[in-house]
Amino acid sequence: MKARIAHIASNTFREAVRDRVLYNLIAFAVLLSGAAILVGQISIEIEKLVVINLGLTAVSLFGIVIAIFIGIGLVSKEIEKRTLYTVLSRPVRRWEFIVGKFCGLAGTLVVNTFFMAIGVFAALFYVSHKFVRADALVLVALYFIVLEFLIICSLALLFSSFSSPLLSAVFAFSLFVIGSFAEDLRGFAGMAHGFTRWLVTGAAYLVPNFSALNVISSIAHEQPVAAQLIWHNTLYALFYATMALSGAVLIFEHRNLK
Amino acid sequence: MPAIEILGLEKTYFVGFWRKRPKCALRPLHLTVEDGEIFGFLGPNGAGKTTTLKLLMGLVFPTSGSARLLGRDWTDPEVKAQIGFLPEQPYFYDHLTANELLNYYAQLSGVPGKERSRRVESTLQRVGLTDVKGVQLRKFSKGMLQRVGIAQAILHDPKLVFFDEPMSGLDPMGRREVRDLMEQLKHEGKTVFFSTHILSDAEALCDRVAIIHQGELRGIGAVADLTSSVHGKVEVIWQGTHVPASMKALGAECHVTGDTVRAVIDENQQDAAIDALRRERLPLIALTPVRTSLEAYFVEKLQRAETTAGSGK
Ligand SMILES: Nc1ncnc2c1ncn2[C@@H]1O[C@H](COP(=O)(O)OP(=O)(O)OP(=O)(O)O)[C@@H](O)[C@H]1O
Ligand SMILES: [Mg+2]
Asked: Which end of chain B is more exposed for a tag (fewer CB within 10 A), N or C?
C-alpha cells in the first residue's frame, strides 16, 4: 500500500518536472534579483523589508498558481485521457491513487519552495551582507506557506474529482481569495444578526483560514511568532487537508469513469 | 473453477444534459468462461463489449449484478494482481518512455524489484518494442501504442487477460504476432478473453465465442457448434472462359472477365466445385472464403434480432 502510494507520488512528481513546472524558478529568480538590485538603489533601510515582503509573497503566489494549475488536472485529466484505466485495473485502490497524487503534488511544491527559499535568503544576504537571528522567522513564514500549499492542493484535488478543470480552477481560486480574508469574514459574522449571522459564520469557518497562515508582513517587521500559532496552524492545515482529501476520496470512490 | 463468472451484470447509462433518459448498454448478462480458454466476445459497434469489460475491471459500476474472477469476488483488489487488461484505444502517460511506463506499472502490480527489469525487458521484446524503449510515448504511433497496451497487460504474468480489440491499429504482421501471442498465453495455461468484430480472428483463435448485440447475449458456444447449421460462401476463380455444366448445377453464379471466371458457391460445395474443374482440366487460380460460416451465423443472429425488434413496435 505505502509502496504503491509512493510510486504514484513519484510519477506525479516526474510528470511535473518533465512538464517544465520547475522553470517557474527562473522567473522567480529574475523577479527577486531585479527587485533586490532596484530597492538597493532607492533606500537602504527598507530594502530588507521589501525583499522579505516581496520574496515571500512571490513564493506564496507562484506556489498557489502551480498548486491550482496542476491540482485541477490531477484526476480529471486522467479520467479524460483514460490513463486511469490501466492504473485502476491493477491492485491500486482508488483512495491510494488520490493520496498518491496529493503527495506527488505536495512534494513538487516542497521542492519548488526549497529552491525559492534559497533564493530569498540569498537576496537577504545580498542586501544586508549578514544574517541575524530574526531571519529565522523567514523559515516560519515559509513553513506556513507550505501548509497553505497543502490546503490548496487538497482543495484542487477535491474539485478535480468531480468537475472540469476550468470550473475546478475557478472554485479553487475563489476559495483562495475568500480564505485570505477569512479573519475579516469572521469579524463580520460577529457583527451580523439572525440568519445572516449563521450563514456568514458557517462560511467563515468552512473556507480555509489563510489569514492565520499569512505572517509575511509581521515577520518583515521582525515581530515574533507565538509558538502556539505554529502548533495551531500545523494542526489546522493537516485537519483541513485531510478533510478535503477524504471528500475527494469519497467522491472518486463512487465515480464511473468515462 | 471457472476463470470468469458474470452473474447478471447490467448497466444503464443516463444520457442527456437536462432530462436524463436511461440508455441500456448491457442487459443482465450471464456468462461463464472456463480456465485456460481463449474466449471471443463478438458484437457489432455499440453492442456493449467495452461496457462489459469496464464493468469487470471496476472502472464503471453496474446497475445490478456481480461477477467472480478466478474464483474470487471481482471487487477484491488483490485479484487484480492476477489480471491483465488492454483497454480499447489505449492511452498512456506520454511523458514517460516505454521502459519507464512498464516499470511504473510493474511497481503498481507488485512485481518484486529484483524481477522487475528482467520482466520489463522480456515483455518489450515480446511485443517488438525493444528498439524504441527509450522513446517518450508522445512520439509513438497508434500501432506502437497498441503494442505498449498489450505489453502492460501481460507484464506481470497474469493468469487471466482481457483484451478489448487487441488487433485494432496493428499492421498485418502485428496481427499475426498478436494471434501467436494469444496462442502462447493459452499454452502457458492462461485464460484469454478478448472482444473483437474481426470474425476471422475469432474463428481462427477461439475455443468458444459469445455474440452480443444491443447489450444482449445472442449466442454462445464453440465456433464449430454454432456454425453447424449455417454455411459460408467461397469464391472460386479459374483460368479460361468455359463454365462447366456441372459448375452451373452447383447453383453458382459465374462471371467471366477477360480470361478468368469467378464463381461464388456455398462453402460445403467447394470440394464438388474443385472436382468439376479437375474433370474439365481447368486450372484453378484461387479459392477464397468470402463469408466465413461464423460471419454467416453472426449476420443471421443480428438480422433475426432486427426483425423481432421491428415487429415488437
Ligand atoms: N459513458 C457512457 N454514457 C452513455 N452511454 C454510453 C457510455 N458508454 C457507452 N455507452 C453506450 O453503451 C452502448 C455500448 O457501448 P460499448 O462501448 O460497450 O460498445 P462496444 O461493443 O464496445 O462497441 P465498439 O465495437 O464500437 O467498441 C452504446 O450504445 C453506447 O452508446
Ligand atoms: Mg468497444
From this structure: C
Query: B67: closest CA among B163, B156, B185, B193?
Result: B193
Domain end marker among B203, B226, B249: B226
A92 interfaces chain B, CB cutoff of 8 Å: yes
- Check CB contact of A77 with chain B, cutoff 8 Å: no
Domain count, chain B: 2
Let me know whether B86 and B194 are in one domain: yes
Residue B217 lies in a domain: yes
> What are the CA-CA distances from residue A134 to residues A140, B183, B242 (Å)?
11, 72, 107
Do B250 and B181 have their domain in common? no
Which of B58, B61, B152 comes nearest A88 by C-beta?
B58
Cα distances (angstroms) measured from residue A224 to each of A114, B3, B256, B274? 22, 67, 101, 101
Q: How far is CA A22 from CA A101, A111, A116, A169, in A?
A: 18, 9, 10, 20
pTM comes to 0.88
If asked whether residues B8 and B147 sit together in one domain, one would say yes
β-partners of residue B219 are B211
Q: Angle of helix B142-154 relative to helix B98-108, nearest 10 degrees?
A: 30
Cβ atoms A107, A7 nearer than 8 A: no
Which residues of chain A neighbour B17 with C-beta distances below 8 Å? Answer: none
ipTM computed for the complex: 0.89
User: Cell numbers 527559499 label which residue?
Assistant: A117
- When pLDDT is averaged across residues B215-221 and rounded to a whole number, the result is 90
Q: Which residue range is the domain that position B78 belongs to?
A: 4-226
DSSP state of B283: P
Residues B255 and B114 reside in one and the same domain: no
Q: Which residues of chain B neighbour A89 with C-beta distances below 8 Å?
A: 57-59, 80, 83, 85, 87
pLDDT digits (tens, 9 = 90+) for A80-122: 999 999 999 999 999 999 999 999 999 999 999 999 999 999 9
Partner-chain residue, chosen from A18, A82, A93, that has the shortest CB–CB distance to B87: A82
Q: What is the CATH number for B128?
A: 3.40.50.300
Residue at B89 is within a domain: yes
Q: Are residues B126 and B164 in the same domain?
A: yes
Q: Give the Cα separation of A47 and A217 in Å (integer).
A: 14
Mean pLDDT (chain B, rounded): 89
- Residue-wise pLDDT tens digits, A31-46: 888 887 777 677 666 7
Q: Quick one: B193 and B274 in the same domain?
A: no
